[in-house]
Design a protein that fits this description.
globular, two-stranded antiparallel ribbon, four-stranded mixed beta sheet
Amino acid sequence: MEKREINPTEWLLAFNLNQGIEVTGGQRVLYLSGQTANAADGTAMHAGDLVAQFRLAWSNLKDSLAVAGMDPSNIVRLNMYTTDVDGFMAAAGDIVPIFAGDGCKPVSTLLGVTRLFEPEIMVELEATAVA
């Protein structure tokens, strides 16, 4: 499988994101449901701490990738939902290294939503991976 980054402009690179990714030779596609800051028993964790919630949601996402024999470098799309866009952007300096450090440089959409499935959940991560 080969991935080619498509970036007609470079401003998203500051966030470790691409505007497009062309995949050729991929044989498997994994569509992941939204991953949140929930413990294995479903308990919502880290109420009010957006960065800690992102970190746990990312860990949960990586666990799902591992079960499929993939890792974060296989992610081509990472959609991020948050109930606090301003807080998310203010914390971007802490959030971006979480996924960038794992070799993930996806295309992405940041979506502000009124609420996620539990009131204390502030972040949900939805991914598509290719191998």
